[in-house]
TrEMBL record:
Signal peptide: none
GO biological process, one term: endoplasmic reticulum to Golgi vesicle-mediated transport
Keyword annotations: Endoplasmic reticulum, ER-Golgi transport, Golgi apparatus, Transport
Cellular localisation: Endoplasmic reticulum; Golgi apparatus, cis-Golgi network
Protein name, as recorded: Trafficking protein particle complex subunit
Sequence similarity: Belongs to the TRAPP small subunits family. BET5 subfamily.
Amino acid sequence: MQFFGGSDISPSPPAPTAPGNNAHMIYVFNRNGVCLLYKEWNRPLHTLNEQQDHKLMFGLLFSLKSLTAKMDPTSADKGNLGVPQLPGQGCSFHSFRTNTYKLSFMETPSGIKIILVTHPKTGDLRDSLKYIYNLYVEYVVKNPLYTPGAPVRCELFNTALDQYVRSIA
């Protein structure tokens, strides 16, 4: 495909060659937009610093949630575009796909937001995100040494998450 700059850009990235090569990165945010966990597996290019990246991702989620709520054809009460909604309130999105990645999203009733960025040919990840949330609850939330709202620094959780994410086809 040819774009304005004249460079040749592939319409989609090559398919993963090895199992576990599908996941690019994961974000876990709390209800206030604080990034509790960021982990990457297959991200060849870093264009922003970590703090800018987290702000950009949370802003994207905020905007998409507002947009989907405003476009909800089943609700007469649309509210104002950009006004935050309670978790589970209104219409939400589960994923979107571009030619280079797929972003899958889940928000829990407590306001925890889990974002998994994978290869664009990856299937539906809703059950996988629920499983990751269960890992988070078991290894992080139930850990008496964890302070709520602090970045996740639990080695057991990181190991279990890494093993699970690498198993996603």
